[in-house]
Design brief:
Radius of gyration of chain B: 18 Å
Strand content of chain A: 5-15%
Number of strands of chain B: 0
Radius of gyration of chain A: 21 Å
Shape of chain B: elongated
Helix content of chain A: 40-55%
Strand order of the largest sheet of chain A: 1-5-4-3-2
Largest interface: A-B, 26 and 26 residues
Strand content of chain B: under 5%
Oligomer: heterodimer
Largest sheet of chain B: none
Order of helices and strands of chain B: HHHHHH
Number of helices of chain A: 5
Shape of chain A: elongated
């Protein structure tokens, strides 16, 4: 087979695989998400009240990798599920578990909208 | 140059290729398994332009990185694969901008560029194929 034909064939197969894998995983993820929303709607106890207020003392008791809360700019976030996904590494998140992480966050991401949007997904309340 | 030095030199591109592929595979898998962690990184302009949800784009991006990451690991069409991943990584670097993450991504993009520039390395499908073609030509 000529190299050009072989390369084009490779790109076509890879493209089909990407669309296939992406679509299948997206549909599975969407189904899971719908189930989660349904479960949240049927279970009031599982709802997160983002109007809650916490003292820094409350935050300080959640200071481990398996239970990580932090306070950033007057708001409290539960980052437990984000530790392994932080693009800048686990250590950066672990270092602010249980403490006020405002200065660490602002020094690293101050003014950037994307990190703030990511953070807002983990909001659980405000700092008293 | 002694034998050990020759071997180190010979296999250094393979180590680089495998290292880069592990990064692509890991990020691809994470994006597919936890898309909600990555949707905020999708530029608004792409969502507006494509009329696709950020979640769907993250899945497609994850599949892209996973498929080409596996291809790079196995050394299938190394040059094309590394070239596509290099473009992808430079795009990410541009989107992330000047920050600690951006500099890290720039380093990864240059690593992928080195894989692209070197082409097929030892312990890969490409090399195995070229060896077969070579031996069949010789015979």
């Amino acid at each position: 087979m000529k190299p050009l034909t072989s390369n084009i064939l490779y790109l076509i197969i890879a493209g089909i695989l990407i669309i296939g894998v992406g679509s299948v995983t997206y549909s599975i993820s969407s189904k899971k998400e719908n189930n989660t929303i349904y479960q949240d709607q049927t279970s009031t106890s599982s709802q997160v009240n983002t109007n809650s207020f916490y003292k820094l003392g409350d935050v300080s008791s959640h200071n481990s990798q398996s239970d990580c809360w932090t306070a950033v700019n007057g708001k409290v976030y539960n980052l437990t599920n984000y530790i392994n996904s932080h693009p800048g590494g686990q250590m950066a998140i672990e270092s602010i578990c249980g403490v006020d992480g405002s200065s660490a966050f602002n020094n690293q991401h101050g003014g950037a909208s994307k990190p703030e949007r990511v953070l807002s997904g983990f909001l659980i309340g405000a700092l008293k | 140059m002694n034998d050990l030095q020759k071997k180190l030199t010979t296999y250094s591109p393979t180590v680089l290729r495998i290292g880069m592929s592990i990064i692509a595979i890991w990020f691809g898998t994470q994006e597919i398994l936890n898309p909600q962690m990555w949707t905020s990184f999708v530029p608004d302009s792409i969502v507006t332009f494509s009329h696709l949800s950020a979640n769907f784009l993250v899945h497609m991006n994850g599949a892209f990185e996973l498929i080409f990451g596996i291809a790079l690991l196995l050394g299938i069409k190394t040059r094309i694969t590394a070239f596509l991943l290099t473009l992808h990584m430079f795009d990410i670097t541009y989107v992330v901008g000047y920050s600690a993450l951006g500099i890290r991504d720039l380093g990864l993009a240059l690593g992928l560029l080195a894989v692209f520039m070197h082409g097929p390395s030892p312990v890969s499908f490409d090399q195995r194929k070229s060896k077969t073609e070579y031996s069949s030509t010789v015979i």
